[in-house]
Each structure stands twice: as structure tokens, then as C-alpha cells.
Specification:
This protein has about 220 residues and is of the alpha/beta class. The chain has seven helices and four strands. Helix 6 links the parallel strand 2 and strand 3. Helix 3 runs antiparallel to helix 5 and helix 4 packs antiparallel against helix 6. The longest helix is centred in the C-terminal third of the chain and has 15 residues. The radius of gyration is 19 Å and the shape is globular. It starts with 11 loop residues before the first helix and ends in a 24-residue tail after the last strand. The mean pLDDT is about 95.
């Protein structure tokens, strides 16, 4: 062929319509609730790519509430990852719970730390919050509807944090505004983003202070 054209189509419904009509030869990042109807179309070859990426909640560790590690531990204890992923993807056909920074299919995968993942323990979370001296200060979660999984994750996270007694503000912006705001440690407490599969763990942006990446996590 002489040419290949790549179109960046932000609206998921338009991507679905384009692949159904034949306007596009390939589309990715389609809504999971379109899976069954697309699979029934004899003109479309549907594939679920695994593993590909994972969703992360990023704390602002530089200033504000979550500069305090105990408050971060409280949030971690409260999180119900299954509920978040059901909101994002619907069924386990499209997600897998995994405590690690890498996937089970990779040589770097280890079991260490899994006891701290998906604890779903609001009572422990409340205890840790009390020990941290939390006194109703607002948690600001910034997110965007430009990426459906980010918005849905943030909505469920807000609910889970409110159930342990935290005051939560959910601020919704377009993605460029989120990128702008997350570079300022005075404007947010948490944001949700996604990371693609990496070849080895040291490529993970948020755990290496050399990258000076949003969240500013630093642990030798």
C-alpha cells in the first residue's frame, strides 16, 4: 500500500461507528460494553489485548495531606480495587487485579507486597486516619472525562474515601488542564492515570525521583 493514515478520534462512540461502517480498518481503546455487538459482526476481527496497561492512583507526596505516609496508608487500606475495575471495565474479561508494578507474564513479577494490595479494610483505614491526625481537610482529586477509565476510577475512589470519613472534592477538567495542574503541587492531592507495559521496573516513571514526575515520590 502507498499510504497508512492514523486518525486520533477522542470520542469512543465515533471510533466504534467508524470500525462498524468500514471507515476505519483498525480501532483501539473501544468501550468494553461494545464488545459483544462487535464480536457478532462477521466483518470485524475483535481481539482483547492482554496485558497492555494498568491504572494507577498517584498521590501528591510533595505537599498537602499525602506528604504524610500514614494518610497514604489509610487510603490504600480503604481501596476496593475490584469495585473500581468493575466500574471501569464491567467484567473480568477485561481486567485482572494485580498488586505488582509489572504483569504476571513478565520475568520481573514477584509476590512481595501483595498483602497490602486491595485490602478493602475501612476500619483499618479509619484507624490509620485517626493516628495520622486527619481533621477533615479536603482531598482534591483531579480527573478528566477525556479518558473514560480515569473519570470512572476517580468517581468510585471518591465514594470509597468518603466512606472512611474523608472530605473529597472531585475536579473534572479536560486532559491538557489535568496535565497543567498536576505539575503544581499546591493544586491537587490525587489523580488517576494509566501506564503501559514496561520492559523492566526501573522504567516506571513515578518510582524514580530522577524523572521529577508528578507525585514527586522519592524512596531510595
Amino acid at each position: 500500500m502507498d499510504n497508512i493514515f492514523f486518525y486520533f478520534v477522542p470520542d469512543a462512540a465515533t471510533r466504534v461507528a467508524g470500525i462498524q461502517s468500514g471507515e476505519y480498518d483498525f480501532a483501539e481503546g473501544l468501550p468494553t460494553d461494545s464488545y459483544e455487538s462487535l464480536k457478532k459482526d462477521p466483518n470485524i476481527n475483535v481481539q482483547v489485548a492482554k496485558p497492555s496497561s494498568y491504572i494507577s492512583m498517584i498521590f501528591n507526596t510533595k505537599s498537602g495531606l499525602f506528604a504524610d505516609g500514614k494518610k497514604r496508608q489509610a487510603v490504600n487500606a480503604a481501596i476496593d480495587s475490584e469495585t473500581i475495575m468493575k466500574a471501569v471495565a464491567g467484567t473480568p474479561d477485561f481486567y485482572e487485579l494485580n498488586h505488582g508494578l509489572v504483569f504476571k507474564e513478565q520475568i520481573w513479577y514477584v509476590d512481595s507486597g501483595k498483602e497490602k494490595y486491595n485490602q478493602k479494610n475501612p476500619e483499618l483505614a479509619k484507624k490509620l486516619l485517626a493516628e495520622s491526625g486527619y481533621n477533615g481537610e479536603p482531598v482534591t482529586i483531579i480527573t478528566t472525562r477525556d479518558y473514560d477509565y480515569m473519570y470512572k476510577s476517580a468517581v468510585v475512589l471518591k465514594d470509597q474515601l468518603e466512606k472512611i470519613g474523608m472530605v473529597v472534592n472531585l475536579e473534572v477538567y479536560d486532559w491538557p488542564t489535568v496535565l497543567s495542574k498536576r505539575s503544581n503541587d499546591k493544586l491537587w492531592s490525587i489523580f488517576i492515570t494509566g501506564f503501559l507495559i514496561t520492559l523492566e521496573p526501573s522504567e516506571t516513571l513515578y518510582i524514580d525521583s530522577r524523572f521529577k514526575w508528578a507525585g514527586w515520590y522519592s524512596n531510595p
